[in-house]
Amino acid sequence: MRILVINPNISDSVTALIGSEAARSASPGTQLTLRTAPFGVAYIETRFEAMVGAYAAANVAAEHAQGHDAVIVAAFGDPGLAALREVLPMPVLGLTESALASACLLGPRFSIIAISQRIQAWYREVVHANGLEGRLASIRALDRPLARIDGIQEDHSQALLALCERAVAEDGADVLILAGAPLAGLARQLAGRLPVPVVDGVSSAVRQAEMLHGLQPGSARRGSMAPPPAKPQRGLPPALAALLQDAQARGASA
Amino acid sequence: MRILVINPNISDSVTALIGSEAARSASPGTQLTLRTAPFGVAYIETRFEAMVGAYAAANVAAEHAQGHDAVIVAAFGDPGLAALREVLPMPVLGLTESALASACLLGPRFSIIAISQRIQAWYREVVHANGLEGRLASIRALDRPLARIDGIQEDHSQALLALCERAVAEDGADVLILAGAPLAGLARQLAGRLPVPVVDGVSSAVRQAEMLHGLQPGSARRGSMAPPPAKPQRGLPPALAALLQDAQARGASA
Amino acid sequence: MRILVINPNISDSVTALIGSEAARSASPGTQLTLRTAPFGVAYIETRFEAMVGAYAAANVAAEHAQGHDAVIVAAFGDPGLAALREVLPMPVLGLTESALASACLLGPRFSIIAISQRIQAWYREVVHANGLEGRLASIRALDRPLARIDGIQEDHSQALLALCERAVAEDGADVLILAGAPLAGLARQLAGRLPVPVVDGVSSAVRQAEMLHGLQPGSARRGSMAPPPAKPQRGLPPALAALLQDAQARGASA
Amino acid sequence: MRILVINPNISDSVTALIGSEAARSASPGTQLTLRTAPFGVAYIETRFEAMVGAYAAANVAAEHAQGHDAVIVAAFGDPGLAALREVLPMPVLGLTESALASACLLGPRFSIIAISQRIQAWYREVVHANGLEGRLASIRALDRPLARIDGIQEDHSQALLALCERAVAEDGADVLILAGAPLAGLARQLAGRLPVPVVDGVSSAVRQAEMLHGLQPGSARRGSMAPPPAKPQRGLPPALAALLQDAQARGASA
Amino acid sequence: MRILVINPNISDSVTALIGSEAARSASPGTQLTLRTAPFGVAYIETRFEAMVGAYAAANVAAEHAQGHDAVIVAAFGDPGLAALREVLPMPVLGLTESALASACLLGPRFSIIAISQRIQAWYREVVHANGLEGRLASIRALDRPLARIDGIQEDHSQALLALCERAVAEDGADVLILAGAPLAGLARQLAGRLPVPVVDGVSSAVRQAEMLHGLQPGSARRGSMAPPPAKPQRGLPPALAALLQDAQARGASA
Amino acid sequence: MRILVINPNISDSVTALIGSEAARSASPGTQLTLRTAPFGVAYIETRFEAMVGAYAAANVAAEHAQGHDAVIVAAFGDPGLAALREVLPMPVLGLTESALASACLLGPRFSIIAISQRIQAWYREVVHANGLEGRLASIRALDRPLARIDGIQEDHSQALLALCERAVAEDGADVLILAGAPLAGLARQLAGRLPVPVVDGVSSAVRQAEMLHGLQPGSARRGSMAPPPAKPQRGLPPALAALLQDAQARGASA
């Protein structure tokens, strides 16, 4: 199968981190296309940045989704995920949603380990939007400035490990989620050293995309995930306009 | 005070509806600036359309907010509201949030009357994101095609009245919310004819903006509504880029 | 417009605090009538005291509401609020409900700063009854004896400021609510010194009363906020008996 | 043991219904004192009426509680229950709380059968305040005028039975609660004819009072059920003033 | 009345603890039969152990329930409780459910004091399954190895008292629940020394069984607590097979 | 990889249905071992039957899990799932949990289609235990007698299709879950004919097992999913006793 992996942010070095972990995670026969947002910010900590990232991801998807069997929005927090799910004909996955799905199969309560204090409020809202706040043991986050977004794993390895251990010992976490594309691959490294199962978003999203591709559950012609009803549009970038128009046409013929 | 009212959609005729009701609602001394999104769709029923509307609203705000004391995002569902609240220095209000605030002062449980079946899922998610699903009696919606978005009030007046009455009689609504910019002004017309208080988003948002302007509660320098932390950005439209940069600078100096 | 502001407690000096902040908050053209409960306790910390305050507020309203456009029950916790809303023909507001409505327009999560340890349980129940516990970051309270109920702001200014700062730094509050009539006016003083928006109940209630007066949303003839159905009564104080009888009659003719 | 049973309403004939069922329910050795509120309304359907009933119940308790081992507030909805629990030295029970406790021991989900449409909103709020809305299958209520409050069981027997059956068949009720003092004793009559267990408030309260008397769990000297902290009071009826003063003194010496 | 009390675990010494407290709690005229599980573990801390205990309890009930008026599953966490309630013709009670019912009549929020760190997750899930997590102030537990399961009260008396006090002072508990059969009887000893009411499961279950026996609320012929529909079975221990067959027959004839 | 698939019920013909769908779902290289419970009932509709099934599944796992990379408990409702997860060293999956994980990746709200009226209460409790009731649109179930448990798909095909369509049209389902091992494979058949994505438990569990096997997230040495602490046991079937003993030993050495 072919998966388009979209970094909704502008950091090519983070895209590389994502790509490496995605490649390590993918089954034989899975091909990955990686794309970085042409506009936006370096990484997402706030709702404004997520709003920009959502629009950027949509533009990337509009240009590149064709020919793929699944699309992954590769930022924790899943900017634009539900929006894209309405208009794309193939499964769309996000890092948070996929990590939550994996975590829920491993134990009743999970903690999320994050890269900055500010990012926690947004993550909590995303967990709430997923209806899973009842299983959230805690969110714990680094509290130091991030010198380089693509070197967090190295620069803060001890602090990240300490956050994980405290989440288990003090918050009752049965599973750990290492959150954020900049931490892609860290779960794989720490799996043996942590006292509970640990997952991250990138590997979960790749594996869950393969899982859905195997299930072939069908697509939505009705309900709130069906293509948007036809209505006038104006001024959108050509690819995005075409994406919406195609979806509307697909919906109308359903 | 000066309020910027942004229609996140491209329908000039809906902007006119919004403007009329906003003008009827405003106190003497309140000045209104109305702006229509330069790109997007005719009205919002889905998450994809809301995502586009959020980005459009942000661009309009970036170009026009300066010199205003408050900004209103004038689409029910509040696309981009929390995002703009992070970056703008003045209060930002949305139709849903404002109508919910008004409704909560009038009775324990409210129903939302909406213009299309499809729109209900998104509205329910917005109420959930506002943490108020416990007070939602029901969402009821028109189930006929909308011939013209700016004539719904006339074309479907009997059906809208019937939805209101059923929400009270069958769902236990203590308050009614007439949802969506296309219904702006209808609450005012129906207030006497309905057996419970009725509010709409536009008048609520204008009045709540005045209310906040009177309170002068201060702005956020910390917490999740403070300006986003400084980080690299690239490729955003100039006004949006400047808005984010200014916010980051304001945050850094806080 | 004319607003009746009822202190459900017997402290004239607290009524004076309320009156000062209400006057500072009111728009030009708003006239305030202040009344103190003729019986009851000095301030409310417990459910028993709230029960007494509710009945006292009802008696005051029964005697003085006529000729006013709105009524404010001026104790945090809103004793008797929903009861009065059923029987009075004009909008009725409470300090808690109004402060919550204001806070919800300023950020996703709020903390409540309170004057005593004991009062916290009751406040939590009131937030729960309002359906907003999902947005409650924390309640923090003074833990020292209160030498004089009308001098708390001066006697405990440092401690109150410290509670505010901890609510933001440790509990994730995006907005602060300074709770209780004895703190009326403090939000106004602290607004500039706190890192997030801060509101109090008195100014919120006055401004929200003006807001509702502007909206003219209509009153309840059906639903659970309509006047109580007619039934025998006996032995109530004359004004209260008349208030109930009038409401029943208004309901019967609706 | 001696139990004081307070009808917070003025209907002597309902007090008689309560007394009959209480007597049928009590164990040998349990003595019952019955008192009717000297002021208030005939029965409670609304929050205003509940507020009046709470104050009336408090006055009755203040005059008559001494010498009893438990006090029952005998109106469904439990007006004044938490307030009285703070100030009385013996256990205080309510019809709703007791019926909920019994029902929760008989099956996962319960329905409440009520005497009027209007009463349902208040009951739902009481279940919510008890934190048990997750187990509430439904509230179903008579929709006809009540010719006489003490003859509902006879006048509407078929309709009440039909409501019970629909709650089981359509709402998934595992247990039925017949709500309201006017229905006291009906559960006993219908127990054999209904397909699920059925409880009412009066018999549950009497039996739960005996249960608590047997447990002797101790009383609250701290926490939110401890006596109210000392503070000035003024103008309360003598018995109520003494009740509060005694409670404050008991609290101060704890 | 006759009550069968089943210890779902193999510890005869814990059965003796349970029996002593049950005897102290029972009213005159209540006869107790005590049975210990013939297979299983010493006490339950985990879901696996609870699963084994549930099956063991069912086997004991199948062999011994006949001739009793109520059955108590005497392990906190209530292993097998809902299952047995479906198949036994008399009321079935559990320690947790009964203690929760008692606690809810004494104050709004309760804390659970437990014997081991590991046991807390299971207890939290049981409270969640009972729909009462909104009233759970905290779970606090011993953190030392348990030298002997039948001597915890003596070996850890100071630590248990300290946990109780912290739950009141720091977590806002209005009521304390001493959880687990190994603590049976401790509530009775501590009742005078703790600042809030305290209950345990064994005495609550015995008293609540008597309470239900007095109410005679009827049994379930429909709903989810009715006997299981008839279907083939195979290979169950004879008594268990007969229990199920009898229940199916009773259900078929209902 | 090697997966052990346990039918916790005694129906060999249902095991065959499960096996066929599991085989159709498995990736090349995945080997399946199928085992039927040696004792129990034909299928699970109630908590008692689930309790029996849990114990039966544990016994089968104890005898056959060794040498496998994952274990699937193949009854909707997941009897014994959390229990087995504590004691087995490899991932353990259930039909419900796996179907929920798949459904959550396809849309916000799901409906469950079930084979009998009685089964619905149990399913709702399982969804609640998974913390996902906020995303449950409805449960709809057949209301006719089941002539043969292995022929439901054929005997009730029209009724099942109708339930699916009503869940989408009337309940707002974005995704459908066909629940219960007797429906294994039906989702595959209906996928094209239904207007929203449809999943079942068997194929989801097989694919999710492969997904987890790919992730290698590590196992629990701490938290509530770690092996049970060592304690005496007695009288368990030899394989089960050994399973528990091994788990305890693994835990002790962690």
Automatic annotation (TrEMBL), chains A, B, C, D, E, F:
This is Asp/Glu/hydantoin racemase. Pfam families: Asp_Glu_race. It comes from the Bacteria. The lineage of its organism: Bacteria, Pseudomonadati, Pseudomonadota, Betaproteobacteria, Burkholderiales. GO terms for molecular function: amino-acid racemase activity. Residues 214-238 are annotated as: Disordered. InterPro entries: Asp/Glu/hydantoin_racemase, Hydantoin_racemase-like, Iso_Racemase_Enz_sf. Belongs to the HyuE racemase family. Signal peptide: none annotated.
